[in-house]
């Protein structure tokens, strides 16, 4: 079943076309990668999906909800069921709040757990799930590494039991040695919880480790879309081939 359905979405900014009749779909429990270089339209599409920008034309539906014209109750449901993991965990976590406060805030907003004890138990469960020690819930983000902060951000997103996780370049601000850990964590969470994931990145290699289907965007247009094996094995568009050529090869001699 299609959970997120973007159809013919167009967006202009001061006469410049940022999105050109974009189609994109994410099925329930599916992981889809949206790949493109800076300025390709990824961020504009993301803002339209999350209702931060209004498209000039087209349609965006989430599980039957018309995202653009949603009423108050539909918007509240959408905001709970669609959660974000942002690019920079240093900027996306309030440095004045403890881990417990950060992870439990969404539960309070959406009325999912009324008691303090219940929220603490849920925070402890989530921290364990993402590979952190529940005893650290009283600490603040500044005392954690970048990779640990991104784990906290993932726990925060999962706290309200979302159906769709939108990840906006969630490993690009991390050291290379940490990126694989976060990618593997997201894959584990997706499999364990049956989440749908829209993973936005500029690096095809990163997307290839996580996503079963890939859409490539260039100059505001989806130029190629298909299963991972097809996009990697037999790319049809020259832009996709250029992105693949830019992927570093660990040992060129072995590759040859």
UniProtKB/TrEMBL annotation:
PANTHER family per the UniProt record, alphabetical: D,D-DIPEPTIDE TRANSPORT ATP-BINDING PROTEIN DDPF-RELATED, TRANSPORT ATP-BINDING PROTEIN
GO molecular function: ATP binding; ATP hydrolysis activity
Keywords carried by this UniProt record: ATP-binding, Nucleotide-binding, Transport
Residues in ABC transporter domain copies: 4-244
GO biological process terms on file: peptide transport; transmembrane transport
Assigned protein family: Belongs to the ABC transporter superfamily.
A Pfam family per the record: ABC_tran
This protein's name: ABC transporter ATP-binding protein
Gene3D superfamilies referenced in this protein's UniProt entry, alphabetically: P-loop containing nucleotide triphosphate hydrolases
Record organism: Saccharopolyspora elongata
CDD domains: ABC_NikE_OppD_transporters
